[in-house]
Amino acid sequence: MILHGLNVTNVRKFVAPTQLCGLGPGLNVLAARNEFGKSTLLAALRAAFMWRYSSTGRQVKELRPFSDQAAGPIVNVDFSIGNIACHLEKRFLSRAGMSLRVGDETFSNADAEEKLQDIMGLEAQGRGEACGVWSALWVTQGDSLKQPELSGRASDALTACLEGELGNITGGAEATRLLAMVRDERAVLLDGRGRPKGRYKAAIEEEEAASAEITRLLERRRALEDDIETLAEKRRLLHHADDATRHEQETADLMQARRDRDRLHQHAARLKAARAEVQLAHGRLAIAHDAITRRATMEAERQRLSARTDELRAAMDAAQQRCDRAEQATAARRHDLQAATVRLQAAQEMHRRASQREKASAWQREQADATTLVTRLEQAAAQVAQAELHLATLRVDDAMMNRLRQAERTADRASARYSEQAARIEFSLRPDIAGQVRINGAPLSGTQLEITAATLLHIPGIGDIRITPPGADDHAHALQARTQARDALAALLAQAGCADMTAALEAHVTRQQAERTVSEARKMQAHLLSADMTDPAAALAAARARVMELDRLLASVAQDPDAAALPPLAEVQDALGTAEAQVEAARAALLSPDGEARQARDMLTRHRTELEQAQQQLDRLTLELTRERMAQPDDTLATRHQEAQAARDTAEGALRACEADRPDEDEAMVDARISRLERTLENRRTEVGELRQDIAALSGRIGIAEGDGLDERIAEHERLRDGHARERAECARQVEILTLLADTLAATAQDATEQYLAPLTRAMEPALRGLFPRAQVTLGTDFSITGITRATAEEFDTLSDGTREQIAVLARLGMADLLHTRGQQAMVVLDDALTFSDSGRMEQMFDILTEMSRRLQIIILTCRSEQFAGLGARRLSVETAGA
Amino acid sequence: MRFVHTSDWQVGKVFRFADDSTQSVLQDQRLEVIGRIGRLAREHGAQAVVVAGDIYDHEIPVDRTLRQPIERMRQFPDLCWHLIAGNHDPNVPGGIWDRLHAIGLPDNIVAHLDGRPAPMDPAGAAWVIPGGLKRRHVATDPTADMDSAETPAGVIRVGLAHGSVRDFGSDEVQNRIAIDRARRAGLSYLALGDWHGQQRIDERTWYSGTPEIDGFDRGGDGGGHALVVDLAGPNARPEVTSHRVGRFVWHRDSATLTQEQDIAALEHRLRNIDPQEAGHVLVWLSVRGALSLEGLQAYQDMLDALGSALRLLRVDGEPTLLPHADDLDLFGTGAVRAAAAILSERAGEGPEEQRDIATAALRRLALMVGAGDSRKGAAS
């Protein structure tokens, strides 16, 4: 196929009729700037061949002019098939239609469309699109990196070419088609991961669901059987429990037991009454007996009290006599005690006087010692006072001495600093002029001089020299400090009463001596003091008071001139002891009769009190006894007692008769029987009620379960399960069949593909090796390039953009060349392709394109005119009508 | 006295092999046949119908299933229907008969559950002596009490029981009925149920068989009928006539296919089971043999056609592929033919399952190639 002319009207930017000029066999290049409309021209070309004129799809609408959306695109194409000239015109959207002239034949609209598809090898794809190998050979902008996509008729055409190359039919395409069908069929049953889907999956799920439902229903069936068995058992139990005969018998037994218990209760009441009567009779008898006994007791008590009062009166008389005797003895003993007391007082006086006489000599010695102590204390006090007086006159004590020394050191340091501030002038003057030189008006003497202030040195015959030492201010300060220190020292010396430091030192020594004297005087004084009285003044006062006390005692002894005549002290002390013993003896003798008298008085009082009480009791008892006998004489009392005894005997007889009449049965046993029978009847009532409830509940449950028709439902679900299982097995079998078929077809298709791809590979390899020497390509069954082998095998997708683009272009050229060789129509259009190629590869591609263009028409649309200038191609131009 | 003897209705029976539509039709016909039995009784002037057990297929049917046969019988108030319990619907406590009792049976239906004789007709000329089952399986003869069953003198004694008069070699004897029970018990007629095929045991003892066949294995021994019994007197020999009441034909067949003539013969045979009512024919076919690829295609075409014509076509087995060099020509040349050759080789060797799959794959491939050729042919 050779494209000779392309004319577009109302296509995007080309509103006016626009002609692509210069087209011819071989290489054709349209080099123009961006947005010139190159891609629009290719789009118009594709639309003319691949889109039905009646299409209203988006891509067709996009062909409309930007400025006039109502205008319908028109494309005219002149081309030739072999030597047959063809002209194609297509109008889209507005007044859509087409015409096709092939040689002398002209077709229009649908016929034209069909004819066009036939001669171009196109295949209708729906939605107004037709597709063929052209979509792979006419490469739009941006698609040059993509592999050519071939399907359907395009693939068939290429395959037919390849198989024709081989000289026979490999069947690869047919096998691949069948393989796709098989896979499609299997895809109905299995998903992409090989898991069941669709009816296969549904069969599995429904079989499982049916099995689960069967399990559930069987479980309900078992529960129902249990319920039915339980219901039968409950009914049997109810029949047994609801036995009327047995119920009547048990009721009669209960009534009889209750009557037995009533009889026992009545007997127990009678027995109780008889016992109470016996007890009452005993009580009455006891009362009568107690009354007799009490009266006898009272009589005995009255007689006892009468005897007692007589005894007490006799005892009172005896006690009175004893008391009188004791009082007389007591008076005699008191007289003896008074006499002994007088004698003791005389002995005590004598002892006092004898004792003072014995103490007088000791008091005299003590009085002399006390007087001596007073004297010595007075002397010591005088010595201390004198020494202290002397010490007080001496002012240079240790503190003063320290202050003086401190002031002296301060003055020395001030003087030293003053001297340090002075400028020293050492000089040696001739003796003849020594007196003539004057300093500050005074003659200069000595050999050196310290100058601390501005000084005027006058040298006769020469003049005056003023010397001003540096730091006059510091020097003044030093001088002032020295003067203050010296003044302070002088003031302290004056305060100490000393002329200088030497005198101060002497005064200090003198004071230290005086302090030692005072200390010694105090030590002497301290020796005179007792340990318990350290105050000298107080000790002196105490000594003086003791001297005065002793003087008084000695004076009192001197006033008793008869003392000397007294017997010795020892005798006096013996006489005193004897007198004291007598007094004690008289006192002791007084105690005995006094106690006797007291005891006698106490006894008398006690007997009197007791007598009074006994008499009162006797009077009261006598009165009470008299009253009772007046109310109930003793004979009456005896009669009552006899009647009570008779009544007791009667009651006891009745009790014995009642006890003898006691029923044989035990009341507890009867109660237990009643309780048992009552419980039995109650339990049966409860049991019957519960059983009826259970039976009702079970019947209801069974009715519901039976109403659900478990057996029938189980059977129905088993049928469903079996049906699903058959369906599942059939699906599994189909999957197995399809898998085997797919695997077998895939294997044979692969073998066939490898056979018929060989010519395409061979067709591509010359061009490919022009670019990649010694390279080999690997093709897939869809004619896509899966890899390239240079030094090593490389996946197509891993290659660089430039290499992939070059290989993709070479693949299209190879296909076109193969189609052309096999007599098929082929023409290549590349829109802005090879954009990723470097200059070296581009040159190689030019060579390949040039070589290919000897057999094929190749149209290149590019914006890089300089780069494609060296291609030696036809230069295309675009002309617009009226421009 | 004239009455109809039937049994083994087994209403509610589920046919596991059937699809939903077939299942529905088969179940419906098990009810419809009751009407046909009633009409048969009317046509022959019968006064009663005795049903010898297994009215129901399940001990616990759904309520609708429970009521359906009752309602069908209610439609014949002029007939007295005498029922007993069978092994599929035994009279267990709380079971199906209690449910029926709770529902309440129409006056024209008598369920003989207590084993006591009862009049068969209002005049009391004949008495039913029932021998229904109280459990699915009983070890004792359910008709044993018939010997001592008391009935008024001079009446016709009709025994009604469910069980087997033979043990068929089973170790465990269940529901076994003495084969001479009619003679022992002085019965004018013993109406039996349990066997689904109609069977005469002796002149007074009959199995009526199921009125609507329900299995392939019982299709050929008389199922699908009901008996009209005519008794002139207690000692008169019963006149028993069999009448077809069933609708479906259950046919089991087998074929060995080795050539296309075999296929044609089989198809002819199956189509002629009931040429006028093929939709009432159910076939269970067992197939073996070996066919060429074309033969397999023809066989598949036959199955497709019969499957549509018959009510049910159930097929076991499949003819294997008989490899033939010419067969591969069907696949043309190239890859498809190579694939067919591989499959053909696999179809002729290895385990049966593998051969089966390979044969099916080859058939599938042939169908696909054939469809492709047809398409091309149609296009040309």
TrEMBL record, chain A:
Coiled-coil region list: 200-424, 569-631
Protein name: Rad50/SbcC-type AAA domain-containing protein
Coiled coil recorded as keyword: yes
Xref: InterPro entries: P-loop_NTPase, Rad50/SbcC_AAA
An annotated GO BP: double-strand break repair
Pfam families: AAA_23
Molecular functions (GO terms): ATP hydrolysis activity
Residues annotated as domain Rad50/SbcC-type AAA: 8-97
TrEMBL record, chain B:
InterPro entries linked to this entry: Calcineurin-like_PHP, DNA_Repair-Maintenance_Comp, Metallo-depent_PP-like, UCP033093_metalloPase
Residues in Calcineurin-like phosphoesterase domain copies: 1-97
Gene Ontology MF, one: hydrolase activity
Gene3D superfamilies linked to this entry: 3.60.21.10
Residues annotated as transmembrane: none
One Pfam short name: Metallophos
Protein name in the entry: Calcineurin-like phosphoesterase domain-containing protein
Organism: Novacetimonas maltaceti
The organism's taxonomic lineage, starting at the top: Bacteria, Pseudomonadati, Pseudomonadota, Alphaproteobacteria, Acetobacterales
